[in-house]
Amino acid sequence: MGRYQACDRLDMQDLAAELGVDRTTLFRWVGNRDKLTVDIMLALSETMMDEVSGVAQGQGGRRLAEIGGVMAERLIAADPFRTFLQREPERSLRLLTTKASPVQRQVVQRFEQLVREEAAGGWRPPLQPHDLAYIIVRIIESF
Asked: In whole angstroms, how far apart are CA 28 and each of 3, 37, 39, 44, 59?
């Protein structure tokens, strides 16, 4: 994760050398470069969701909008994330924003959970929880 946060490109050969193992061992530990990138993004998105949802104000749609807005702002401001998008636009979009993406799936699931929590508090979502969560995530991705 340190290489990502330092805006360095994830190079499996360099990472293996830094860890003092051969590439085969590294691949056995973490999978390929895409898998490692996804794992880093999953960990970071989970942390961000916990932080943002823990301090979000309001209820119902206002709370969800605040969480989505703060997440979009944080992503836009994150140098490592911006660098990844600029350096590898096709790979980053494929790994982060497609329906096949574990990152998108996890973030949608977290927002769906938030929608359900707000609905349990009496708020009536305008769409089914999964559909609303998916739309929120797609809006964040568009930024």
From this structure: 19, 15, 14, 22, 45
